[in-house]
Amino acid sequence: MNSNQAPRRVENVQTDRGSLPVYATGTVEQPWDSYSESDHDVWRQLYQRQREILPGRASDAFLRAQDTMGMTPDRIPRFSDLNRVLADATGWQIVGVEGLLPELVFFDHLANRRFPVSWWIRRPDQIDYIEEPDLFHDLFGHVPLLMDPMFADYLVAYGKGGVKAHGIGPEALMQLARLYWYTVEFGLIRQPDGLRIYGAGIVSSKGESIHSLESAAPNRIGFDLERVMRTRYRIDSYQQTYFVIDSYEELIEATLPDFTPIYERLLEQEAIPAGSVLESDNVFQRGSGEGWSVDGDV
Ligand code: PHE
Ligand code: FE
């Protein structure tokens, strides 16, 4: 899409902020003027709370990117302001959405360097936990790393891989979803000065930011592509296992090959429970398993 041209508006969607136009790609204009003082306050509180605990915990690339993007605690950022910075850095754009998108639509956005961001922010009583991705998770958690050239390319490749997997079958899609979960959402990276967070699901949660790095409960295991693609995960609690990459280059290199034979091979292999440790794992920490519930893996 030519970015100088306004996207084609196809219909309107009713929200609690009135009727918003929906464009052909399923995206909406960010209704920035409709944010209340309470909305900006939720952003400010969450932003400040995370930035207090993230130095020394979040990856250098994440913190650096968030600063250069010009996100601040003062106000919910305007997508259009962030998009100018992103366009120059890596060509990515953020687009507003009402909520989760159908898989293929989501993949197509990523493949075209568009990252869908929920336009609405959680309520004050949802500060600590919300089930669906809201603006804070998407913007604070995901968008900074779109400034990093390596990570930006990884996400494009992921989107293209998703379009392909969609044509292969549900098993391939599930294996790819696990890769997203254990990298983009819940990934850890090894820096010379120690383990750091880069996953958006962690970095946007105070509890999991501390748990993922400091708790004795979870496993921390070196990243291995096929191992990750076989591993089930939790959506209702902190992760039982985190996978650690050495660099974003490692991620790109590991995911560069055609996955078609991998999908085929994995069809023959059983899924691995979220909390299991295998003989072949490169274990940084074997979790104590404290507080784990017995079932509930996705
Ligand atoms: N190389 C993968 C494929 O052929 C695509 C991909 C890249 C998937 C990066 C995930 C992440 O399907
Ligand atoms: Fe997310």
UniProtKB/TrEMBL annotation:
Single GO molecular function: iron ion binding
Key word Iron present: yes
Domain Biopterin-dependent aromatic amino acid hydroxylase family profile positions: 1-298
Enzyme nomenclature, EC number: 1.14.16.1
Entries under Pfam families matching the protein: Biopterin_H
Required cofactor names: Fe(2+)
Annotated keywords: Iron, Metal-binding, Monooxygenase, Oxidoreductase, Phenylalanine catabolism
Chain segments annotated as coiled-coil in the UniProt record: none
Pathway: Amino-acid degradation; L-phenylalanine degradation; acetoacetate and fumarate from L-phenylalanine: step 1/6
Gene3D superfamilies to which the protein is assigned, alphabetical: Aromatic amino acid hydroxylase
Residues that coordinate or bind Fe cation: 137, 142, 185
Reaction equation(s) it catalyzes: (6R)-L-erythro-5,6,7,8-tetrahydrobiopterin + L-phenylalanine + O2 = (4aS,6R)-4a-hydroxy-L-erythro-5,6,7,8-tetrahydrobiopterin + L-tyrosine
Keyword field contains Iron: yes
Superkingdom of the organism of origin: Bacteria
GO BP terms, alphabetized: L-phenylalanine catabolic process
Family that this chain belongs to: Belongs to the biopterin-dependent aromatic amino acid hydroxylase family.
Name by which UniProt lists this protein: Phenylalanine-4-hydroxylase
Source organism per UniProt: Thermomonas carbonis
Phylogenetic lineage: Bacteria, Pseudomonadati, Pseudomonadota, Gammaproteobacteria, Lysobacterales
